Amino acid sequence: MSDEQRPKKPPKTVVFALYDKVTLQDVAAPLEIFARANDFGARYRVLLVSPTGNAVDTTSFVSLSVDMALKEAPDRFDTLIVPGGVPPDFCFTPGEHDVPEEQTPDAIAAALQMVGELAPRARRTASVCTGAFVLAALGLLDGRRATTHWAHCQELSRIYPEIEVDPDSLFVQDGPFITGAGITAGIDLGLAMVESDYGPDLARRVARWMVVFLQRPGGQTQFSVWTKTELPVSGGLREILDAVVADPGADHSLAAMADRAAVSQRHLIRMFRVQVGMTPTRFVEQARLEAAKVLLATGDHGQEAVARRAGFGSADTMRRTFRRALGVSPSTYRSRFRTTGIHQIRW
Fold first, then answer.
1. Reported pTM
2. E-strand spans in 7-111?
C-alpha cells in the first residue's frame, strides 16, 4: 500500500482557552509551532475558544478573533492550552522596574469556568506563563510539580502550597499536565508537544524553520548564571565574574580570585554575597555547569575532555555536580538536550 493509499490518522485537535487581556505571545508562540508543524506533515486542528465567542483583547495592543464560544467546543479533544494574562480591568503602572506588579488570571471568573469545563475533555492540558495559576486555582495541579514565569514562582508556591513549584525549569510535565515558564518558553513547550506527537525529526525541522538555535529540554534553566546575578558595583568584582564565565576551566579557587581582586578571602565572600547573591564557590560551579552543558549539547567530546575544559577536573566530579544540580548524569543530559525532552513520555 502506497503512502497515498494508506489512511491518514485523524487530526489532533488543540483548543486554546482565551479570555480578555490574554498575553499575546503566550498564544502566538505555540500557535505558530503547531501551524508550522502542519507544514511538515503534522495534522493539528487548532480552535480558539472564548467564553462568549467574542474576540478577546490582549496585553499587546491587538485583539484576537476566536473560532467559537465555550458552549460550542468539542466534547473530546487532544490538547488544551491555557495562556497567561491579567484581569481585564488591570493596568500596568508605567515605570522602571524589573518585575511588573501584575495580577494573575486565577482572579478571572470567566477563565476559571472555561478551563474548568474544558480540562476534563482534553487528553493533556498545558499552561503557558501565568496560565498555571488557572490550573492551580481549579486544583488540577495539587500534589504535582509545576512551573510558571520566574517572577511568579514564589507567589504560586505561596498561594497554592499543595503544588511543588520548580522555579528554574522551562516546562514541567507531571501526568497529563504540562506547565511552561514565561512568554517565549511557549516555543519550547510547543516543540516538546510536537515531538511527543510526531517525533523528534519533525520537531527539529520546525525548530530550524522557526530559527530556534536549540530545542531546549524542559529541565533547562530559565536563566544563565550571569543573568541571575545583579550587576556588581565593584569593577574589580565584575572583572572576576567576567573571567570565570569566559574561561571556567582556569584556576578560580577562592585564593586565586581573592588575589586577583586584591582583597582577603573573607572580604571576597562578603562581596559575592552582597553583590551577586551567592558564594564565590557556588558561582564558579554554576558557570562550569553551564559550560559543560553547552559542550555536551554542541559537540562530541568525551566526558573527560568536557570535564577538563569546563573546569571540573574529572568526569567523576562533573557527574556528581550534574546529578546534584540537575538530577541526571551528563550522558543523560546530552541525549535529552538533543531532543525537546518530552517525546519519550507515553500518554
1. 0.69
2. 12-17, 44-50, 56-57, 63-64, 68-69, 77-82
CA angle 68, 191, 45 (to 5 degrees): 25
Residue of 311, 284, 280 lying closest to 295 (CA atoms): 311
Q: Spell out where 158-314 has E strands.
A: 164-165, 171-174, 177-180
User: What is the CATH number assigned to the segment(s) 235-337?
Assistant: 1.10.10.60
The pLDDT confidence band at residue 338, using thresholds 50, 70 and 90, is: low
How far apart are the C-alpha atoms of 152 and 102, rounded to whole Å? 9
pLDDT of 140 over the 80 cut: yes
Instruction: Give the start-to-end residue ranges of the domains of the chain.
Output: 12-209, 235-337
62 C-beta neighbours (distance < 10 Å), count: 9
Q: Tell me how far apart the alpha carbons of residues 126 and 107 are, in angstroms, rounded to a whole number.
A: 19
Q: Which CATH number fits domain 12-209: 3.40.50.880, 3.30.470.20, 1.10.8.110, 3.30.70.660?
A: 3.40.50.880
- CA atoms within 13 Å, Cβ hemisphere of 25: 13
What percent of the residues of the chain are helix, what percent strand, and what percent coil, each to the nearest 5?
45, 15, 40
Is residue 300 scored above 90 in pLDDT? no
Partners of 63 in the β-ladder: 57
Question: CA-CA distances (angstroms) from residue 282 to 98, 135, 277, 292?
Answer: 24, 35, 10, 15
**Which cell numbers in the block locate residue 135?**
490550573
- What distance in Å separates the CA atoms of residue 236 and residue 291, rounded to the nearest whole number? 23
Q: For residue 258, give the C-alpha cell.
A: 581573592
3-state secondary structure of 96: coil
* pLDDT tier at 268, thresholds 50, 70, 90: very high
- Per residue, the 3-state secondary structure of 115-179, as one string, reads HHHHHHHEEEEEECCCHHHHHHHCCCCCCCEECCCHHHHHHHHHHCCCCEECCCECEEEECCEEE
